[in-house]
Amino acid sequence: MSEVVRAEMVANVAEVNVKVGDRVEAGAALVLLESMKMEIPVLCEVGGVVAEIHVSPGDVIQEGDVIAVLN
């Protein structure tokens, strides 16, 4: 079963910490967002393998946008 990680706010993508194929544990920071001069890590709730990354550094994302998919 796939886990879709979505943005919870409008933000800029400051960095992407994983790549497709990486194995991650629950609580791992997938990306770092920047909003209103604050840095917010996006953590995965479950462990798995990164199947898709939908963002790149410098992207502006909206609430609900898909950030990554884990298998």
Short description:
This protein is mainly beta and 71 residues long.
Describe the protein's architecture and organization.
With 71 residues, the chain is an all-beta fold. The chain is 0% helix and 54% strand. The chain has no helices and 8 strands. The strands form 2 sheets. A 4-stranded antiparallel sheet has the order 1-8-6-3, with no helix packed on it. Strands 5-4-2-7 form a 4-stranded antiparallel sheet, with no helix packed on it. A hairpin with a 2-residue loop joins β4 and β5.
Structural class: mainly beta
Task: Please give the order of strands in the largest beta sheet.
Answer: 1-8-6-3
Unreliably modeled segments = none
- Share of residues in helices: under 10%
Percentage of residues in DSSP E strands? over 45%
What's the gyration radius in Å? 11 Å
Provide mean pLDDT, rounded: 96
Q: If helices are DSSP runs of H or I spanning 4 or more residues, what is the number of helices? A: 0
- What does the overall shape look like? globular
Feature tags:
71 residues; mainly beta; four-stranded antiparallel sheet; 0% helix; globular
Blueprint (SSEs and pairs):
Layout: E1 3-6, E2 11-16, E3 23-24, E4 29-35, E5 38-43, E6 48-53, E7 60-61, E8 66-70
Antiparallel strand pairs: 1-8, 2-4, 2-7, 3-6, 4-5, 6-8
